[in-house]
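Course assignment 3, question 2. Fill in each field.
Student: A.L.
Task: Predict the tertiary structure for the chain below.
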Amino acid sequence: MLDIFFNRRSTRKFLKRKIEESIIKKLLTAALLAPSSKGSRPWEFIIVDNPALLATLASSKPHGASLLRHAPLAIIIAGDKTKSDVWVEDCSIASIFVQLEAEALGLGSCWVQINRRYFNDEITSNEYIHEHFNIPERLEVLSVVGIGYKAVERPPLSDCDVLWDKVSINRYKSPSEFRIPKECE
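Answer field:
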C-alpha cells in the first residue's frame, strides 16, 4: 500500500482515452466499500462522462475545477445530511478511496473541492451543481474527483517528503523516535 501513497499525485492533465466500464465499476466498488460513521453510508455518487456535462462541472467554481473539462470521467461525491451529521468526513473517506483505487488501476485523479466554495458572489458551487445535475436538496456535494489516464507522469514522493517532525509520542511535541532521514535534512 505505501507504494500507492508515494506514487499518488494529483493529475490535472489526462489523455483523450475513454475509461472502460469495468474500471469504472472498480472505482465505484472502492467508493461503496468506504467506511462511514455508524455504518450510515450517507454518500451517493454521480458518474459523469459526457463532455458537455464535464465542461459544466469545470465551470462550478472560478479556480481549481478547470481540469474537469478535459477529464474523461468525473465522480460527483455527495452526502445525505439527513443520514449523518458527519457526512463531510464520510464523503472525504469515499473520495480518497476512489483516488487510491484510481492509482492502483494506473489512472490519475484530482480532488476538486466543492463544499464551502463559490460559483460566484451569489451562488455556491454546491448550488450550481445541484441546478445542473438534478441533485435532491437532502444531498450536499463535497467534491468532484476527476479521473483519467495520465498525460504526464509526476515523480513519486520520497522518504524526504514524509514529515516526521509532525509526529509526537504521548504528548504534543514530546520527543519522537521517528526522525527525518539524515539525507533529507
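Instructor remarks: The two ends are 26 Å apart (CA to CA). DSSP finds five helices and four strands in the chain.
Grade: pending
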